[in-house]
């Protein structure tokens, strides 16, 4: 009873006209909102886990030197990669660089990384298909496999995705030789995506390949794969809950992912001209185990990778490259180069 004043009912009734002891009940239920409660709600929405469907493009990626894609950009990218009767299509498999068809016109992007890092699974997720063979056992992809996407009836594919044999466990030396030939000499190659397992981080072999990229000026970007492994609360136990349960990610896990990316940045973008051109200042992350709700059903982070591929191949924003045909041989593009339809004269 300490601190409380007791007032008899009669006095209370007479006092009500002079001092408002308590808000009228009808008034209280309609408009009275305790300010403290409101603040708590705000705090909760800031700290509450993020639902898969509420994730923003910057949640699973770092855009240090580039502009994050808008929702319209991501929708556009999803449309280009939409599965159809003509997309994806398998174009070729080659164990040797010299056996790859040299006269193709489509821009290419390649996926490389250690065995089992998830290269084939990412291509399947990008193409909404099972076109690539995936396996728990490392070393199962033994050739360079090319898949075309965005094709139409009677029209060739817009972009070619290359699934490469992995390095590291169960890999073979000659695969590395052929892959390096492809990366150094393929004129159609626009960007190489190096996959890093988000849980294991950069291994020595990854660092070696990064230094080769810089040495030979090969345009490259990092993708952190298997994000589920660092976004779940309890590894293994939490994975089912993550993919099929609440389908949400704790804010602390998202913050930790940003930290992982920041720590990798000085290694993938070493400072100094002598180091050579580093990775693109944009790091993407994805997991092929967790999907958005229908109708999208995209794996987490996949749309951002699609948008990045469109940018790498010059297909973002409706840019249409024109293939310059050599007059002497109409079958072959001159120098295999793609030239934009751009003119310097001012006649409009
Ligand atoms: N936890 C987890 N496992 C994955 C993910 N993507 C692929 N895997 C598994 O990793 C293994 C290797 O995948 P694969 O795509 O064949 O790797 P590749 O050797 O780099 O082509 C397979 O057992 C996949 O099911 C992912 O996002 N999260
Ligand atoms: Mg594979």
UniProtKB/TrEMBL annotation:
Residues 105-270 form the EngB-type G domain. GO terms for molecular function: GTP binding; metal ion binding. CDD domains: YihA_EngB. InterPro entries: EngB_GTPase, G_ENGB_dom, GTP-bd, GTP-bd_ribosome_bio_YsxC, P-loop_NTPase. Residues 325-342 have a biased composition (Polar residues). Belongs to the TRAFAC class TrmE-Era-EngA-EngB-Septin-like GTPase superfamily. EngB GTPase family. This is GTP-binding protein 8. It comes from Talaromyces rugulosus (Penicillium rugulosum). The lineage of its organism: Eukaryota, Fungi, Dikarya, Ascomycota, Pezizomycotina.
